[in-house]
Specification:
Number of strands: 8
Strand content: 15-25%
Structural class: alpha+beta
Number of helices: 7
Largest sheet: 4 strands, antiparallel
Length: about 250
């Protein structure tokens, strides 16, 4: 039935616009698309290899993580400057790579904060991220066909507390899965300073809830069925606060 609908849509579009049917999508704006029975994978392997080659890290040693565990970066005004143009170019390239590499979102987000005046410590973190990329160029997103017609939407929300040494703001993030497939993610610094981990987690959960409502309405419109959404938070105080209607 879906094939007939797609064919009818293509026929209608072709009657109004000049179109050429090139078959299944395989490569688009640097994103490699592989479509098999019941599964679609997206990756940017060629683009990742190009980043490594242009940054001079093509033959570097591999790293298992995009950033050192527990690393805290700051403006570090006392450190020596590094080549800002090269640093900014690497950040820009890595940001485009995030279309298929959500595991690097936090690291690239942190590196982006110091583009105005990159220092030695920032350059070292950049090289560590590129070393991780060296060992994971073929990784990407995997979308599997779900058994239920309307799979459950599950979101995960988390936040640091007062981790930035320059302004004291926390970093929050959330990801959403549709069935087993990761469909959206976000990592960024919060707009206000949280006075407790509970407050930081609550604000992160609020942003996740906004995204959940938007996704719920979008999927309900597409599937014409109600979509169940679950958001999972790992802070007991924030969970208790969200369940108490007295405060909001």
């Amino acid at each position: 039935a879906s094939t007939k609908i797609i064919e009818a849509f293509k026929k209608e579009m072709a009657s109004k616009f000049d179109m050429i049917d090139l078959g299944k999508l395989s490569y688009y704006l640097g994103i490699e698309v592989c479509q098999d029975e019941g599964i679609i994978t997206l990756n940017q392997q060629r683009y990742a290899l190009k980043i490594l080659e242009e940054s001079g890290m093509k033959n570097c040693n591999m790293s298992h993580t995009p950033m050192e565990n527990g690393l805290k970066l700051s403006k570090s005004i006392e450190e020596e400057d590094v080549a800002a143009t090269r640093y900014r170019k690497n950040v820009g390239c890595l940001r485009y790579l995030l279309h298929t590499r959500p595991t690097m979102s936090y690291t690239v987000g942190v590196l982006s904060r110091y583009m105005q005046s990159p220092k030695v410590s920032h350059d070292a973190a950049m090289k560590h991220c590129l070393r991780y990329l060296q060992g994971s160029t073929s990784l990407g997103l995997v979308f599997r066909r779900s058994t239920p017609k309307v799979p459950r939407l599950i979101g995960y929300s988390d936040s640091s507390h007062n981790i930035d040494e320059d302004d004291g703001r926390s970093t929050a993030g959330h990801i959403f899965y549709l069935g087993d497939s990761l469909i959206t993610w976000c990592s960024g610094k919060q707009e206000t300073v949280a006075l407790s981990s509970c407050e930081a987690e609550f604000m992160a959960g609020t942003e996740a809830a906004k995204q959940a409502i938007w996704l719920q309405e979008l999927l309900s419109e597409v599937t014409e069925q109600p979509v169940e959404v679950v958001i999972r938070i790992d802070n007991q105080s924030a969970i208790a606060l969200t369940k108490n209607p007295v405060f909001h």
